[in-house]
Amino acid sequence: MGTNTGNRIHSRLRERAVGPACAVLALCVVPAGLLAGPSAGWRAVLPMMVAVLGALAAASLHTRDRVVPATAVVVAVGSALGTLFGDPPALEEATGVATLVEIAGLLLLVCLVARYAGARQAVVLCTVLGVLASTALLRLQVPPTALEAAAQSAFFALGAIAAAATGGGLRTLETRRIRAVHEARRSQRLQLAADLHDFVAHDVSGIVVLAQAAQVIGADRPEQVLPLLQQIEASGRQALGSMDRTVHMLRSSDGTTPAGRGATDEAQPVAYGLEDIEDVVDRFRASGRADVRLDLDRTPEHVGRVPREVASTAHRVVVEALTNVRRHAGTTPWVTVSVAPGPEHREAVLAVSVTNGSPSISEAGGGHFGDRGRHGASGLEGLAERVRALGGTLESGVHGEHGWRVTAILPLG
User: Fold this and answer.
1) Residue 359's closest CA among 316, 391, 400, 318?
2) What domains appear along the chain, each with residue ranges and CATH number?
3) Is the pLDDT of residue 90 over 70?
4) pLDDT given at position 409
5) Does the keyword Nucleotide-binding apply (predicted)?
6) What is the DSSP letter of 89?
7) Where are the beta strands (DSSP E) in 173-324?
8) C-alpha span between 126 and 109 (Å, rounded)
9) Contact 351, 408 (CB under 8 A)
10) What is the DSSP string of 283-339?
11) How many other β-carbons are positioned within 10 Å of the β-carbon of residue 291?
12) 124: how many CB neighbours lie within 10 A of its CB?
């Protein structure tokens, strides 16, 4: 199970536990307030009950819109009435306990408002609730001078500031988490687009080449059209399989593969590797007339020494390079694909190169097969970023007189 799935389960369990816990505490507050009313005074107990019940309601129903601001307003009104119209200052123990419990409820509500209310509402409500929490002690004893009363209230306002800072910090963490989730989803979408470009475009360009060949030879050699149509069908199936595999890889990368599908390790799609390069080259060879040579050590010892991410990147380099050959040099007489260790480097590296000869201009009336309507190298640009992320380099340029070569150096460390 992925980390994101575990976090979601933990969040759901926490939300389901908060509601029942708040309900139990509320059931305890009501009888306690009724019992403390005769000794502490109802003018002290009622604001206390309103503050505590309001804080519990906000904690359990914070996911509903306007619940936290409305609850804060009700509690603020109740606390203000308790301060303005309460009993004369008294140091009775029961009254002091009720007042302190009310202050605790106000501070909890300040934290919840700072965490869940709207930004503007949070500023106003936290200020009002903080003032009420810092002045509630005046019900017990009024200092002899106004300056001392202000100093006492300012000191106890530090609790409200700390509560607001706690709620604001939690809000900031949640905002960062949401932003990180959006960035992760955006990164996944870009990765999916890159995979579709690298894998599917290779097969689709092959279909285009075969269809063009069928049009050319259809009139003069109709007996060769059927094999071409069969190759087109095979390339189409391969393209569909590449799309399915890419989507499944995206789903399983964050642990979101549905239960019952791909539950076993054998059914889980894995990234392409060195062993898949031969299939890519074979399909490229079958869809064209170029002499394609492959230099690849397919022994298990060599394949096992190459990290999976490096092998996957090498596969994508070959796919993208052959796709560009098919698009822009469809009549090239030869193509060489080499995937071998690079002995000229100090550290162990994997050197991947795809080289094609100069396209022929004498065949097919000087034209060429390929995707003539598409230009640009967005695939190589994105691939270069991936190679650089692995600490490697990707270069492409003219080889010989009119040929072309794409070379990637991928560190194995």
Assistant:
1) 400
2) 3-142 (no CATH), 276-363+374-413 (3.30.565.10)
3) no
4) 92
5) yes
6) P
7) 291-296
8) 8
9) yes
10) HHHHTS-SEEEEEE---HHHHHHS-HHHHHHHHHHHHHHHHHHHHH-TT-SEEEEEE
11) 12
12) 15
